[in-house]
């Protein structure tokens, strides 16, 4: 059943029997046999087949989403059993939101591998809401999100602080003023992250704290693009200090001095609400909390 599910998932994602067979290093008839066997065992057709495409039908969509969960849980079970027999090794799937994942996590992984060289981490970078969703579907072992969240099916624990300030290009006209007013800030174009991002949540809180919502807002899909856009003179933004260390040191960006800033937020760990955790996940969580 496990192999049939894996073959089915591959066919569903490739939407083509030939490509699936190549990826699985199988013959196309062998792939077809696995699909037919799965459909017979479930007593329902899962795919719509034509000469041009292979698509999931309604039953196939249901099986696809649950099959992903089943195989992820099976992998987790194997890892837990391996922990009883071996030293810390194997896969460690980490999901992190953009700020922590891009600017802090690489250094943490380097430290982790010096102590546990047999580990094989894989890292997925998504926004906060997407990391929660990945954990809910058992696709990651540990998640790291920006800000705090609640979910009764998950354990969410704040573990580190972050500071955020209003940022502008070092040659921005704001810095020629003796005192920067709220009106000055209100008239600027603000560069913000997409909805669902932890940084966007803090940017919304920033506007609430400043008691205005800017008339001119540009939404951009990553912090790196926002930084480049600020340097290009497209506007100003609220960003984490972690993301702008190099730009501040090189004099490309500057902090705008405003009362009540920097703002403080937390990074939070997201783990399954279960007493069972792989050794790999345990040592990684311990590193984050205690380093």
Automatic annotation (TrEMBL):
Keywords: DNA-binding, Transcription, Transcription regulation. The keyword Ribosomal protein does not apply. The keyword Transit peptide does not apply. Residues 1-57 form the HTH lysR-type domain. Belongs to the LysR transcriptional regulatory family. InterPro entries: LysR_HTH_N (IPR000847), LysR_subst-bd (IPR005119), WH-like_DNA-bd_sf (IPR036388), WH_DNA-bd_sf (IPR036390). This is LysR family transcriptional regulator.
């Amino acid at each position: 059943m496990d192999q049939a599910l894996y073959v089915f998932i591959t066919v569903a994602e490739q939407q083509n029997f030939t490509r699936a067979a190549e990826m699985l290093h199988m013959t196309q008839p062998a792939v077809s046999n696995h699909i037919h066997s799965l459909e017979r065992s479930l007593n329902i057709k899962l795919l719509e087949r034509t000469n041009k495409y292979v698509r999931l039908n309604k039953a196939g969509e249901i099986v696809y989403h649950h099959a992903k969960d089943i195989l992820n849980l099976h992998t987790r079970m194997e890892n837990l059993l391996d922990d009883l027999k071996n030293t810390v090794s194997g896969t460690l799937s980490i999901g992190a939101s953009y700020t922590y994942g891009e600017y802090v996590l690489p250094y943490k992984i380097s430290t982790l591998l010096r102590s546990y060289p047999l580990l094989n981490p894989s890292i997925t970078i998504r926004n906060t809401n997407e990391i929660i969703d990945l954990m809910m579907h058992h696709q990651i072992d540990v998640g790291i999100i920006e800000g705090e969240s609640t979910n009764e099916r998950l354990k969410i624990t704040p573990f580190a602080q972050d500071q955020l300030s209003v940022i502008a290009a070092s040659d921005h006209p704001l810095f020629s003023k003796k005192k920067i007013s709220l009106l000055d800030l209100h008239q600027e174009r603000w560069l913000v992250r997409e909805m669902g991002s932890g940084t966007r949540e803090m940017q919304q809180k920033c506007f609430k704290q400043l008691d205005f919502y800017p008339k001119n807002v540009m939404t951009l899909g990553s912090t790196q693009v926002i930084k480049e856009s600020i340097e290009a003179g497209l506007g100003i933004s609220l960003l984490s200090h972690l993301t702008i260390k190099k730009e501040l040191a090189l004099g490309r960006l500057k902090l705008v001095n405003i009362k009540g800033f920097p703002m403080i937020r937390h990074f939070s760990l997201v783990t399954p609400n279960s007493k069972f955790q792989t050794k790999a996940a345990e040592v990684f969580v311990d590193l984050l909390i205690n380093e």
